[in-house]
Each structure stands twice: as structure tokens, then as C-alpha cells.
């Protein structure tokens, strides 16, 4: 029986990163004469990577940005964010003990995110969970990103895993669509960042807290996790 493989999104799934992402976006917007976006309106903008976040930020505050402006502000975003990547970011409750339990059970773990790979690794290290993830596929690691299934397939290949024993874990349409395109089961957290209601994404299981994760695994992979609660 192949070892089970779990592919985790990062922003909104493993960690609450919205505060630092949104502050970075607002810093860059104000540099270009745009107004700040209130936190109450900004969480639905997160997801899809920094360039898309800046594109949405400009649309929220006036005229859409040109491709050239987006290229420049993307670089500004990366530079500022790398210096403030974990000012306000924290793991969601229950993540740390869950990862330890999964490691103890020899589950293969990877991060599949549209965040730049270098920043993803930096954040995982600062959050103290980098050792759990020998494979990190970022938005710039491959020529494609989520929801393209190759983003997930590459992670499985590098882990030495099996597609028939893999699950995608995410918080948005990008993650769940990637799972569908890869023909993998999915678990969606209800507390992340999505522009669409979680119940409409089509995930196999929705959880409201990581304490519910073992039961979700037992449901999706009873042969591997049948006794988990």
C-alpha cells in the first residue's frame, strides 16, 4: 500500500497570512497614489499570488493597472513583503499538532501554493514548520500554477508518492479546482480566503477547525486512516 500524500495550500489554509499580505498591498497602493483598502473588504482579494492581489487592489481603488505597472508593483510587493512576512501571520489553531501527528505516521507532506517559492519557504521557516515539508511547489516553481493539475502532480512525484493515495487541502476555488483537475479528493477549510462561498466550491469535505481533520482523513482514506479521530 503506498504511503498517503497530503498537499497543503499555504495562505489561508495552514496560516492566517491576510494581515501581512494586505498591509503589503496597501503600502504599495499608497506609493502609487491609491487609497488603502479596509481590512473588512480585503480578505476576499487574497488568493492566486501577489501579482493577482495587486491587480485586484488596483481595480478596487480606481482604474485597473497596466501590465507594466503590475510588473513593477509585483517587484515592490515582493521586496516589502519579504521584510514583513510574519509580522502578523500565525498558524491556524490545531495546525502544529496535526503536522506532528502526520509526520509520526510517515505521511508524505508538500506545500502547493501560488505564492512565490522563495517566500513560501521563508514563511514556513519563520512559522517553524518547514521541516514537515520537504517539497514546496510555488507559483513560480513551474511554468504552470494552480489550478493546473501539473502543480500537484510535480509535488507528488518529488515526494515519491502515488496519485491514488493523495489529497489536496485548501481554502479556495483555486485549490479545489486544482484537485478536480488532478482527479484528487479534497478537503477545504471554511475559515480561509475565498471569493466564492465554501459550500459552492465542490470540495469532498469541509472542515471548520483542524481538530476535524483526522476524521476527514478517515472518511476519504479509510484504509490508511480508518482509526483516526
Chain-averaged pLDDT: 95
| Order of helical and strand elements | EEHHHHEHEHEHEHEEHH
Distance between the termini: 21 Å
CATH homologous superfamily caption of the largest domain: HAD superfamily/HAD-like
Helix share bin: 40-55%
CATH topology description of the largest domain: Rossmann fold
Query: In DSSP terms, counting alpha (H) and pi (I) runs of 4 or more, how many helices?
Result: 10
Rg, Cα atoms, Å: 17 Å
**Low-pLDDT runs:** none
* Large-scale geometry: elongated
Query: How is the largest sheet built, in terms of strand order?
Result: 5-4-1-6-7-8
In total, the number of domains comes to 2
Summary, kept brief:
With 229 residues, this protein is α/β, with parallel strands linked by helices.
Write the layout of secondary structure elements.
Elements (H helix, E strand, L loop, with lengths): L4 E4 L6 E2 L1 H14 L7 H4 L7 H12 L5 H17 L6 E2 L3 H10 L3 E5 L4 H10 L8 E3 L11 H11 L6 E5 L2 H10 L3 E4 L15 E3 L5 H8 L1 H4 L4
Parallel strand pairs: 1-4, 1-6, 4-5, 6-7, 7-8
Antiparallel strand pairs: 2-3
Helix pairs in contact: 1-3, 1-4, 3-4, 7-8
